[in-house]
Input
Amino acid sequence: MPVRFDTKIAVLLRDDLEPWQRLNVTAFVVSGLGTASPEVIGEPYADADDTTYLPMFRQPVLVFQGTKETLTTAHGRALSRSLPRAVFTSDLFSTGNDRDNRAAVRAVGKDQLDLVGMAIYGPRNAVDKVLKGARMHA
Output
């Protein structure tokens, strides 16, 4: 019987990104969820030879896409619902380290962020409402 989770992990990407950017943004934004919401992380893995591997998310990550406006609206909805979230702005494509990344986000107010991606986590219905207008990534 399939497991149904009460929560959802979702990534929303701007639909005008290059393929390498989509992958890069997705990797970066999901990395923050496990630190803020440790319950999303499952148990470590091991193969038949007892070689151990790091734990991963315990549930699927759904990836969506939308326009710049869709991302801005979803960001506002996530903030209003106080959902755990991570953001990636267009400025981060030109930085090369965590310190500069944080400074680039810090330099801009929340309503002026040029968002290209975000990850959110929370109750299924709340995440669905945040993502209204976005479509599954093809």
Remarks:
- The CA atoms of residues 14 and 35 lie 24 Å apart.
- The chain has a mean pLDDT of 95.
- The first strand starts at residue 7 and ends at 14.
